Amino acid sequence: MKKFKNLIENIDKITQQKNITIIEANHRKYIVKENKNKMIYDYLSSRGFINYLEPIKRNDDYDVYEYINEIDIPKEQRALDIIRLMSLLHKKTTYYKEINLDEIKEIYEDITNQVMYLYEYYNNLQQTLEQEEFFSPSSYMLLREISFIYSSLNYCKNSIDHWYEKIKQKEDIRIALVHYNLDISHILEGENKYLISWSRAKKDLPIYDFYHFFNNCYEDLEFSLLYKEYTMNYPLTKEEEELLFVLLSIPEKVILDLDEYNNCLKIRKLYTKLNRANHIILNERSKNQKQKQP
User: Fold this and answer.
1) What are the average pLDDT values for consecutive 10-residue runs of the chain, which has 294 residues?
2) Are 16 and 80 within one domain?
């Protein structure tokens, strides 16, 4: 309690929840978090993005925020609000910088190496499982749809090669401030809407925000409409979309253990993610084909 006395007077109660502290004092509630974001907040303010929670007090170690009483909103609406704030964030902070071929090559090599590793991993796993006299439920689940994993990996390899050849010919690339950790819980919905948890934010390719949001929430949300909303508000270039689709399509590495129930859950998540990513890609292909028709 002593470390907060110079920030808040007459403290009645302190409650710890994960990485935040809730303090009750003077018949009001406050949120206290470690001070990690001052430069980010200053930058957001300078770019005219106001949908972040401004600290009401701060010192060298902590920020104090007014406690927001949230409105009960369905998760689908919260996701749509996040997408709209994400696109607004990218609009407000976008700039262009000269292509750095070393950075582009690093992205290409990282993805290529990951795809090659996963192809070998699943090929070896398939051979091992096929030697079982009787398939376990998880082995059957994995082997029944394993061609989907290989087709996703082939798609990633072909697309990242194509992306690399195209992007090398460009003179500049689009950069924005990227939250880097968007999740259904990282929005406060009261009288106003605020994105929270900016500790990982940095300037990078804007597609990484949609990618991380997808990774965090693909089990609970249908992302095709969210992608449509995002690109309607912040249209992507062909190269940005191609790289994003590759990232979405990379299969998770499933490590099987002795917990058969847990193995089945992991495999279900693997195929759920691939199906949700594939749905986005097929919808966009269908839209593009219709646009090309006379």
Assistant:
1) 65 74 79 77 93 82 78 92 98 97 97 98 97 93 96 98 97 97 91 89 97 96 95 97 98 95 97 96 80 61
2) no
Q: Which amino acid is at 48?
A: G
Half-sphere exposure of 228 (CA within 13 A, CB side): 13
CB of 193 closer than 8 Å to CB of 187: yes
Q: For the CA atoms of 248, 210, 212, 71, what is the dihedral angle to 10 degrees?
A: -140
What does DSSP assign to residue 145?
T
Domain check: are 86 and 20 in the same one?
no
Give Rg (Cα) of the chain: 23
Q: How far apart are the first and last CA of the chain?
A: 70
One domain, residues 19 and 59: yes
pTM for this entry: 0.90
Measured over the CA atoms of residue 263, residue 268, residue 273 and residue 274, the dihedral's sign is: positive
Q: How far apart are CA 153 and CA 118, in angstroms?
A: 8
Total domains in the fold of the chain: 2
